[in-house]
Amino acid sequence: MTNTPLYIIRGKAGTIFLLYMTVATIVQMLYGNIDVSIFAFPMGLALGVTGLAIVYAMEHKWGPTKTVAAMRSAKAACLLLGLTAAFAVAGGLVPQFAGFTTSWPFVALLAALEMHLSLVIIHKLRTFRFRRDLSFMLVHIGLWLALFSGMAGAGDTRKSDILVPAQAVAPSPRLLSFQIDRNPADGSPVQYSAEVMMNGDTIRLAVNRPYSVGMAEDLYLVDFNTNMMTGEVDYCILQKVHQPWKYPMLAGIGSLLAGTIIMTTRRRKEAER
After folding, report:
1. Do 170 and 208 share a structural domain?
2. Statement: residue 142 has pLDDT above 90
3. Is the dihedral of CA 136, 55, 22, 102 positive or negative?
4. Which of 10, 72, 96, 175 sees the fewest Cβ atoms within 10 Å?
């Protein structure tokens, strides 16, 4: 048993986790996916603060116990990250799992990972030393912030489609040009880009290269239509995405990357000594 990937599911911590995920699965079967609008501000922020308070109390009162120690262990991290990766792979390969990101089991899994990270961070703060623990804290705080921003931001994200025709008259959005870059070898499309007139300004955007409208809004090129008679693109579709949690998420990712770079550099220097 000790050689199997799931050997860490034992003791009180394992029992609690199994019951927790079982309840999430039952709720999923009864009610279907979560309506992410319940996480809209201020509910998402309130849930995060409440969760942190509960975790702080757990660590403060029961931190030395085997159960809490197991919840913040490296083995628990491996289990949670492994299950998260398994969900992601299944969602990408199995069409029936396409909506897994809003399923109760997956959200419950992310919440468990957030709790684990919170326990680790609060526990480490008790003995924190700047030079020794900086990279460790940057990685864990960064991952915590990125995950929390993604979960809380799901309820605040707003999307709307904008149809941009080539023959529109100002002040309506107008498609000025549309370009399809092709692979010289076989002629297959490799990139789509558009030049659009909006509110008197000419903007350029491409697939996976959005145009930033403001601090929390971006325009994405998501579709187009080719006129069967002329072969010309007669309209494209842009998607306006409002993401107020975008920059906290980017800050979390930046912290994660910075911590990883510092950790890697330090280990390389230690290996050269």
Report:
1. yes
2. yes
3. negative
4. 96
Whether 224 and 259 share a structural domain: no
Do 71 and 11 touch, CB atoms closer than 8 A? no
- Count of CB atoms situated within 10 Å of the CB of 39: 21
Q: Would the pTM count as exceeding 0.90?
A: no
The better pLDDT of the pair 165, 215 is held by 165
State whether 97 and 164 are in the same domain.
no
For the stretch 22-55, pLDDT in tens is 999 999 999 999 998 888 889 999 999 999 999 9
Burial environment of residue 79 by CB neighbours within 10 A (0 to 12, 13 to 18, 19 or more) = buried
In a domain, 3, yes or no: no
Report the pLDDT value the prediction gives residue 2, as an integer from 0 to 100. Answer: 43
Q: Which domain holds residue 174?
A: 158-242
| Shared domain check, 169 and 255 | no
- Specify whether 42 is located in the same domain as 136: yes
Distance between CA atoms of residues 84 and 101, nearest Å: 10
Q: Based on the structure, what is the number of domains in the chain?
A: 2
Nearest 5 degrees, angle CA 215-CA 150-CA 49?
Answer: 100
pLDDT in tens, 66-75: 999 999 999 9
Instruction: Indicate whether 148 pLDDT > 50.
Output: yes
Cα 175 to Cα 193: distance, rounded to the nearest angstrom: 11
Going 239 to 245 to 247 to 253, the CA torsion angle's sign is: negative
